[in-house]
Amino acid sequence: MSIPMAKHYKVLFLVLSISYLFSGELTSASTATTTTKKALSFIKSSCKTTTYRSLCVHSLSTYANTIQTNPQCLIKTALAVTMKHAQSTKLFVSHLKNSQFRTLQDCAPDPYVYDTDRRLTEAILELKLSDSESGQSQFLSHVSKAQALFISASDDWDVVNTCSGRLSCTTKAVQARVVNLRKETSNVMSLFNAFAKE
Q: Whole-prediction pTM value?
């Protein structure tokens, strides 16, 4: 189905406007007085279109002063937050001690559990590629691929729930981070689709 011209230009503008996203830093509201009720209301209203509403509101409210009531800024920020968390998770996994991985072999029979770092790297690349696309379907395709990689990574760590003690805490921490990432990518797609349909 062809996209109406007006909608096409709106989607094109949205995707192209994300181009600045990875070149700058997010501006976080330092105090409650710098965030307006209008901006927070806009974020809460927009997050109603997502599956994980509370996560959406929680992750974006911090940047209310940046987002204001601008849909483009809302989506740019949601994507930037997901990227930031993905890079943080990758760093966390990369710094796990080798001894921890060796011990994990006793309670994690699935060899793909050690591919988490690779999956995260590929997912981050997909998020970056979404920034360079000029069409709605291409943008959503890259974000969807990133989400699929996050899902695979969380499934990998689900098999290590038989680990005990300190390792149990480690595996739960990794899985919680990755599950959060797949939820955030879902929210990004929902927010993007909601704006494109207007």
A: 0.75
